[in-house]
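The material for today's practical consists of a large collection of protein records. Getting from the letters to the tokens is the skill we practise here. To make this concrete, we reproduce a full record directly below:
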Amino acid sequence: MEKNVQVIWSECQHILRDNLTPSVYMTWFAPIQALSFENDVLVLQVKSQFIVEYIEENYLTLLSKVLFRMFGPKTRLEYRVQIDSHSDAGVNIPSDVSQAPVAPPVLLQQPDLKDEPDFNSQLNPSYTFESFVQGESNKLARTVALSIAAQPGRGSFNPLFIYGGSGVGKTHLANAIGNDVKRLLPQKRVLYVSANTFQLQYQDAAAHNHIPDFLLFYQTIDVLIVDDIQYIAGKRATQDTFFHIFNYLQQSGKQIVLTSDKAPKDLDGLEDRLLSRFKWGLAAEMTKPDFALRRDILLNKMHRDGVKLSMEIVEFIASNVRDNVRDLEGVLAALLAYSTLADKEIDMQLAEEVVGRIVELKPRETSITEISAAVCEEFRVSMDALLSQTRQRNVVQARQTAMYLAKCHTEMTLSDIGRFMGQRSHATVAHALDVLSAAMADDRVLGQRIRHIENHIAG
């Protein structure tokens, strides 16, 4: 033929585009490339076998007419399916196009569809990176999530598989990715869906013979976020459909974010081919928040909701509500409600009553605020001096004592203690503990003073 095969295929694509809806054309035909046309055999390169199956099932008649018109009535078609997107390796699959009618009638252009209404991403707008508090238990997951939000589908974290127990913030972080993508890249189609909702949608589509529309919709998504993916376990048909959607999106450079209560290797009832794909990107664990993170979550929530609590009450709540971020927020909401109804300030008694209804209270833990106050009284220094940068010998020893007792009697990390003690570093606190331990071994009076302080804060 006189024209280059790529040029003729481009003309075919123009005809297809005029006879299909924009979304159908962009999803199924725009990515296809023509490789060769020899001995009446046209070879088209596609990204997956699923695309071949879907085109053959739904658009073979139209494709046959276009090919016969542009390449000739004896045209036979083969698809070259890429095995590896990073190499030229592939396998050829013959088409049934040769069985289609030879006479190529004139194609009629369909009218343009009206612009699609605003796409509902189903995201929770309050779940953002700004409202997500970072700690040691979620640092990796949040860092990767920020990277994905800036460049969805372009890095090696695809899919991102976030896993952890209930209430550790998986849903919040997944939504934050979607909200940030919409803010930074408003042209992207972002969808958040729970696995249960996906299952119900699939069942409804199957019952009404709308599976092609169901697949087409999901394959137009740029960032797909599926929450609690473990709930499709045991649902074979749903898994099969999700497998094809996953393949298409991943191979098309679209971003996938999944959450689960378990790591991929620990999930039961899911097909091996799905589990293997879940491991292609990054699995990021989110563990239960430690004391410092629980306290910071409370402080962040208080700031956003305009709630005022003493640091003693904050530390009391953080010490007792240990497993679930949602419980922390529930305690704050309950305290605010009780305080408003009773028209009284939130005190420790009210805090103990509310927290006691949610979790089993453990013996109240001494706070670093109480420890510091007792140290100031024993060493006769002010709280301002204790937290200052002064190097006076008496103040330095008092400060070291407060750090030592905080380490012994609270769950605070060295970094937390340092931040409380005038924004000092982890290394500074560690050094202070070493110095005080050595001093206690040589100074009996210092040891007695520390025991006196411990007796005071204990009772």
